[in-house]
Automatic annotation (TrEMBL):
Keyword Repeat: yes
Signal peptide span: none
InterPro entries: Kelch-typ_b-propeller
Protein keywords: Kelch repeat, Repeat
Region (Disordered): 309-328
Protein's name according to its UniProt entry: 2424_t:CDS:1
Keyword Repeat attributed: yes
Amino acid sequence: FDSYDFGINDTKAFFLDLSVNWTTSTPAFNKINNLFNVPMFDFTTFSALNKSGLSLIYAYGGLIPNNIDDWTSGTFVKDFYKVDVTSYPFSISPVISGGISPGPLCDHKSIFDDKGKLYIWGGQTAYIKDQTMYIFDTFDSTWSQILPLYVPAQRSSYTATFKNGKIYFIGGIFQAILIYDIDTNDPWTINYATNNFNISNRYAHSAVLAPNNQSIILYGGLNPNDSIPADYLITLDLRTFEFSEIVTKNKPSIDDVSAYHTTTVIYNNYMIVCFGDFPVKNPNRNVIRVLDLKDSTWIDNFETISTNPSTTSQVSNSSTKPTPPNIPTNNVNKNIIVSSIVGSIIF
């Protein structure tokens, strides 16, 4: 269920089973019953971490809207907790941390590096603009802050993608691409794609690292004037820093692909797009769309793959289906864990 349309917290969390075949009209969703009391809010950010044999999801912040039909205002929260999805049933616990945390905020992004550190920057805050980069070290459960001499303007509704020690912040209306180098004392640089005049500015989109690890795929979103970008599916080549539009086959109607606030994940050569908001409401619309990246074809039938999946994580909305079957212990690496309010993780 989409929390924006059906009320807050209708369905807390569930998973999409990638170990079985399914169609986009009947996806293999399974509700995670024991996470019903998870304190999820609108625009909470979720990040996945595999550490010491554990598969963990960290969640921070969010918004309690004043009205379920209007999530543009409300109470900002700073709840910080983790969900252990190493084996079923999953467990949840608050994160007890030291240092100064980001405080109440929403519509931000959190992302892990390859050293077990979680980075949070930007978003919307209840008080003042905060341009500080907050870093949470999962090994000693402490927060630290970095505020160098040069700090870019705060953004929200952007995407953050990590690759080789750098975090790429794209969108949030601005054309400039921000790059944060985790290994330097002066970490921020600003860059522009060499052909950005051909590409629409956007916010509320999603982004994933492509299977080749050389480009970032951007999906959906809105233009600064809240219209749908015609180039709804583009890629940024990190070697040449050029944008290009991905021309797809078997394209659904524009009303079914023109989505924003979606969940997008990569599983092997599949790009799976879940949920989102649409400019044209349609209760019969499929909540899942799958793009086969081998030949850029939208497909209706998902077929499970026996090889180990490549993984990434993003954020967005949700849905539900029957209660979960018996999940073998330590065998959840072929499931997308999805929260009901702006969040999903793939394991």
